[in-house]
Amino acid sequence: DLKLNSNRPNTPVGVADNTQDLKLSYDEDAIYNSIKNIFNTKKGQKILSPTFGLDLEQYLFDNITKENGKAIGQTILEELAIYETRIIVDSVNVVARPKFNEYKISISIIIPSLNNKKSTANGLLTTQGFRYT
Fold this sequence. Notes:
Elements: E1 2-5, E2 21-24, H1 27-40, H2 57-60, H3 66-83, E3 88-97, E4 102-111, E5 117-126, E6 129-132
Antiparallel strand pairs: 1-2, 3-4, 4-5, 5-6
């Protein structure tokens, strides 16, 4: 799991500054990056794994409703752990917010490799994709 990092260590002599270096993520941060990628990848978008992703875009251009929120929550509950095998999805709460044209999502997870650490991922799902809050 990688993300761009604008903080850079001291550079050796003769090496140009690189303001777009890569930063590695470990443990819980790596899992959160992976979850975000799973949310923001459409099925069929990943050529070597065409079933990868949660396929939530089908709900994003419909009306923001409690029923669609329930369907989104069920999809997350059933499929997230398939693509992120380092977690157990404990519970999912999705709140439809039609006034803001978004769904507020809270996912409780357990990370077995980190001594069964319990954690919560909170974010918003909009037509621009998923982002953490």
